[in-house]
Predict the structure.
Amino acid sequence: MKKTAKKAERRQIFRKRVMLTFSQKLVGQPVMYRLIKEYDVAVNILFAKVLPNETGKLVVEFSASDEKRLNKGINFLKSLGVRIEPISKEIVRDEENCIDCGACTSVCRSGALSIDRKSFELVFDQEKCVLCEMCIHACPMKVINISF
């Protein structure tokens, strides 16, 4: 049993969800490639808006086998001038005034918003939400907002 505990301890993965903002000059550079290759940090891109000659935004989840490696990778990004913001905001819904129309589900690419097929009520899975804010604009009742 001790060997199993040691294996589990060694396999511990450190994760961090953040929003990255890239300057125009960094958008065309292989920044994520270097982060993955040189620092061995896995990058799961949850949301991206990256266009030529514009500021780029990514919501990502970083993961690494140890915390030092993860922090070195984050420091690398900071040294390039990438703005890193912890995800401290969340989508909230006024459930009392929501009419469960499902308009927000049509724009939710992450699958965080869905309609329960049995109750026909809106279901929100906070863990899947990537904070793209598309649902806020799609809601005809204006009951979806951002909370900081």
Summary: The chain has two domains: 2-86, 91-147.
